[in-house]
Amino acid sequence: MNVLELSEQEIGRRQSLQELRDMGIDPYPAAEYPTNAFSTDIKAEFKDEEPQREVCIAGRMMSRRVMGKASFAEIQDSKGRIQVYITRDDICPGEDKDMYNKVFKRLLDIGDFIGVKGFVFRTQTGEISVHAQSLTLLSKSLKPLPIVKYKDGVAYDKFEDPELRYRQRYVDLVVNDGVKETFLKRATVLRTLRNSLDEAGYTEVETPILQSIPGGASARPFITHFNALNVEMYMRIATELYLKRLIVGGFEGVYEIGKNFRNEGMDRTHNPEFTCMELYVQYKDYNWMMSFTEQLLEKICIAVNGKPESVVNGNVISFKAPYRRLPILDAIKEKTGYDLNGMDEDQIREVCKKLNMEIDDTMGKGKLIDEIFGEFCEGTFIQPTFIIDYPVEMSPLTKMHRSKPGLTERFELMVNGKELANAYSELNDPIDQEERFIEQMKLADKGDDEAMIIDQDFLRALQYGMPPTSGIGIGIDRLVMLMTGEMSIQEVLFFPQMRPEKKAPKSTVAEWQAIGVPEEWVPVFNKCGYNLTSDIKDVNPQKLQMDVCGINKKYKLGYENPKVDDFAKWIENVNNSDNE
């Protein structure tokens, strides 16, 4: 890396790195460092009356207070932080005091990983600490961490810009309290979910992510090219159709926790790449699945929060079963005053106009109902609510309702104004399924780019016979948001999708050379803040010389400084090129 691309602190750290190597100290040793304790455990287990406990700990050095021959440092390991007391003569018992005087005091930096062997004690101020008897550098940090300072529980100089936090999650995890806790809770959600499904006797499976037909949901897919087969493939939008094939094959219950990909919008509750759990169980229906889901979510909430409640945006949400069950058309009537029962597409279109909704001709009956529900109803359901009995036009993979013509045995679980889960009594009539796929293709012909494509192999599987089955999909990212109280999906994803980083525009080396600037001087101009050739057109030649030649001197580049007349000529060339 060109030295001019580095900050002052980065240059200093690289100089320290070289000094350490010159001293014979490997800044990145390969050998195992045999830690035997964590910060939080040391504090929890310490007893003043017990004999001294020898420990070996390691972590990032997050602070340092040098006081002559004795110093304090704070180490952050994977569980928390602990203070370390370091004296010169303890870590340097012989004549050579370089490990303390040079390495610890001058060559180590905040963010470096160090190992400490010593014993646990309580300081005069009452803080449980580790008295170091040896110190080892385990990894040198070349970039300075943003340091968040805390006083009386208040954080200062926070690393809080969302753009930086999400793009550099590794820094966010190091310096911001509570971020790691969110992801540990996410792990608890997944662990509890998986254990509950395993205990129920269901089998975790894996199905293809690259699919020849994007089925199982209505969504716009990502498209890629499979070179070996020379065919277009799709990133899966759901696992549904493959999991149902396994029910056909004889599994009692199967589930998959994995990534789905939908080439659609991004906002605080949507990420195009998201984690979903789908479960299918034979001989069950959507009524059974509602009860199973209630119990599952209550168990997860207790595992994460210690109680069946979570606080989201000031709302106390209770996951204690049972939950309200409300037909979707009743919900629409309740919120809008319009009863859509028995209405055809044209009549519902008229209702949309009366409600001043923006609709278009590509929307069929199901899409129109979905739009009405989404705009007027969905956001009003804060406590867990099963919205049930969807019209058949909205549910191409769902069994017809056993007692309500035109409706299906489907539910969506709404929590905090958003869909958390979607479930059916699964359609297992292959003839009915084929007819519904055909209706979906008619919507595609009208321009609906989210309509399902006919999956002939799935139809063939159904023709071999699928037992009565209930299935559900639960959005894991939204579930974690609810359990942790986070309002943005980016807060519960380690690495959310981001737009490409914006970089300041720069003139090319050739463009600088075109006005007479030698190639080796281009990075020097950039270091001064002159990224475009046009940036120098109004600069005084003497000032430009002072800026550029000052960098040459400061960084000991060894270049022969151009004369003022050279800078004046370059400025003149820029202005002439602008006038051409």
Question: Going across the major beta sheet, what is the strand order?
Answer: 8-12-13-20-19-18-17-16
Structure class: alpha+beta
Tell me the strand percentage band: 15-25%
Low-pLDDT ranges: none
**Total number of strands:** 20
Query: How far is it from the N-terminal to the C-terminal residue, by CA?
Result: 37 Å
Shape: globular
Main beta sheet strand tally, sense and closure:
8 strands, mixed
Tally of helical segments: 19
Give the integer mean of the pLDDT values: 94
Radius of gyration: 32 Å
**Percentage of residues assigned to helices:** 25-40%
Overview in brief:
The chain has 580 residues and is an alpha+beta fold. The protein has helices spanning 8-22, 39-45, 88-91, 98-107, 162-167, 169-175, 179-199, 240-248, 286-305, 328-336, 345-354, 365-376, 430-445, 456-463, 476-484, 509-514, 522-527, 541-554, 564-579; strands at 54-67, 70-76, 81-87, 113-122, 128-139, 149-151, 154-156, 203-204, 210-211, 223-226, 231-235, 253-261, 273-282, 309-312, 315-318, 324-327, 385-388, 410-415, 418-425, 469-475.
